[in-house]
Amino acid sequence: MKKPVQITDTTLRDAHQSLWATRMRTEEMLPILEKIDNVGYHSLEVWGGATFDVCLRYLNEDPWERLRTLKRHAKKTPLQMLLRGQSLVGYQHYPDDVVERFVAKAVENGIDIIRIFDALNDIRNLKVPIKAAKQEGAHVQAAVVYTVSPVHTTEHYLETALRLAGLGTDSICIKDMAGLLSPYRAYELVGLLKKHTNLPVQVHSHYIGGMAVGVYLKAAEAGADVIDTASVPMAFGASQPPVETVVRAFQDSQYDTGLDIHLLFEIAHYFEELRKKNGYERGITRITDMRVFDHQVPGGMISNLVSQLEEQKALHRIQEVLEEIPRVREDLGYPPLVTPTSQIVGTQAVLNVLTGERYKLIPGEVRSYVQGQYGAPPATINAELAARILGDKEAVTCRPADLLEPKMAKLEDEIQDLAKSQEDVLSYALFPQVAKKFFEFRKETGGNVNNGIMSTVAAEPKTQKPAAGAAPNGKADTVQKEDSKVNLKEVKELIKMLDETDISELTLESEGVKVSIRKGTNLFAAANNAVPVVASAPAASPAAQAVQEAAKATTAPLQTLAPVRGENVVEITAPMVGTFYSSPAPDAAPFVKNGDTVTPGQTVCIVEAMKLMNEIEAEVTGRIVDILVENGQPVEYGQPLFLVEKH
After folding, report:
1. What pTM was computed for the model?
2. Which letter does DSSP use for residue 310 in this model?
3. C-alpha to C-alpha distances, 478 to 400, 498, 531, 533, 547, nearest whole angstrom
4. How many Å apart are CA 335 and CA 65, to the nearest integer?
5. CB atoms within 10 A of CB 65
6. 328 vs 325: CA distance, rounded Å
7. What is the pLDDT of residues 66-85, one digit of tens each?
C-alpha cells in the first residue's frame, strides 16, 4: 500500500538557526521563495525559535513584518512556526494574557501550523498555548522532546504523547533536537505513538551524529506521516538531513515523496551562492561533533555556543564547556537540552569554565529554573546546589504561569510612545530591552524599509538623544557631552548651561577621563549660586587643569575624588562579553547609583550575554564611588563596571 511521506522544509528557520546562527535576512529569502512554494512541501517552517529574537537584536528587522512578507509571497504552502510553550519565542515564562495575544497575532499575521513544545515535557506549560492556538483555528502540533537520560524512558514518551493527545492536539511531533534518536528507537516510538494516539506523527531530527537519514527511513516504515529536512547548502552537521538525499532515498518505494528533485537542486543552487556570498561553512559532521552522544548538545546550541565563545574570546575553551555541560545537566535534574533549558545549562557551563569556579556566578534564569519557575525538572536537582540557590525561598510546585499577573495593559502603557501596534507591544513583552532599542532605531531611521524590511543602515541622528532620566518636558536630569579633548572653554560652557537650565549635572568624558559638574542645593547656596565641580581625573591631567581654571573663574569649590583607584577601592568587572544594563527593565530604577552602599550578594547590574540576563553581584561591603559604564553599552570580558570603596 502506497503511503507517501510528506516533508516540512526547515531552511528558512531551523536550518539557518543551526548553521548560520539565524542570520539569514528576509530580503535574502524572497528571491527564491516562489520556487520553494512550488515544491509541494507539507509546510514551510519560517518563524519562531530564535528568529524572533535575532531579527530584533542583530538584524534590525521587525519579525512580524518578516512573517507578513513571507505570507504574501508563499501563496500555496502552509507556514509553520516553533513555539516554546509558555515561553513563546523567549527564554522565560510569560503571563497567560501575553501568551494568548501572541498566539492570536501569530495566526493573524500568517502562521497556519504551530509546533508547541515544553523543554521539560511539563504538560502544564502547554495547556494555555494549545488552547489559544485551537481557538485561533491553527493546526496544533504538540511535540514530545526527545533526549537520553536515566529518566527519559519509552514509558515517559508514550505517557507524554497520550496527555498531549488528550489536550486536543491535531498531530504529534517527536522533536529530536540533538540527533540522539537512533533508527530502531525511532521505529519503536513512532509505532507506539501511532497505535496509542491515533494521530499523525511528524519526526524532527538533526544530522549532527549522522543518524538522521536512517531515523527517517525507519520512522516512515513505522508509519510516520511527515519528516523535516533542509536544502542541502544548509543541511548536514548541526542542521537537518538534506531534502535531496531523503527524496532520492524514498524514490521508487511506497513512501516516495513525489517531489521534483531537479527543482530542489535549483533551490539548492540559490542557497549555495548565498552561503558563499556570506562566507558561511557547509554543515559537516566532525568526530568532535559525534561526541553529541556524550554531551547531548543540540545542533542549534552548538552553533550558538561557538558564537558566544567567540564573543567571549574563549573559543579555544569549547571542549571544556562541552565536558562541563553534562555535569551541569545532571546537577539540574537532566533537563532536555532545548531552548530555554539549553541556554540555561549551556550558559552555566560557560560561566563555570570562564570563572574557573563551578557556580561562582549563577544567572537569574538558573536560579529561577532551580526554584521551579520553568516547571518540574525530570529528575531531582542536586540537593547542595538547590539549597545554595534557594536559601529560604520556597520551591514552586504549581503551574509556574499561575504565579504571573496579567501584563498586557501595563506593557501597553510603558511602551505607548514607541509602539505602533499590538505586535510591537508583544515584541516589548518578550524582549523589553532589545525591542526598545529596535523601536528607537526605527524611530531614528524614520521607518525606512527595504522590500518591506527595516533598513539595517542607521541614519545619523539629527539631534543628541536625551540621557536616561529625561523629564517629560524634554529636559534631562543628566546630560553627557563627549569630545576628543577637554578644555577650559568647554567646561565654562557646561557651567553656564547649569546656571541657565534645570539640568542638575553635566558630565564631560574624554580619553578615559570623566569630569562631572554638579549643581547641589547646599553647596549651590553656600557659594552664592556657584557650581560645585567634581573631577575624577589625575591632578596633572589637562582635564583636571581645565576644571581647576574654570572653577576659579566661577568661584566654584573644587572637589577631587583622589585617588579613584586607591588601596581601599576595588573594581566590579564584567565576567563575560555582553551588554550592560543598570536596571532590571527599561523604565525601572537602577540597581545602584553613585554613593549607594552595597553588600556581598547584592545585584548591581545585569550583563546580558548568551541570551540570558546575568545578574552581577557585589562581593564586598562598600560604597559605589563610580559607575564606569552607561546603560545599554557593550562590555568586554574583564572590563571594570563599578568602583567600590570598601568599608
Report:
1. 0.74
2. H
3. 40, 10, 15, 14, 19
4. 34
5. 17
6. 5
7. 999 999 999 999 999 999 99
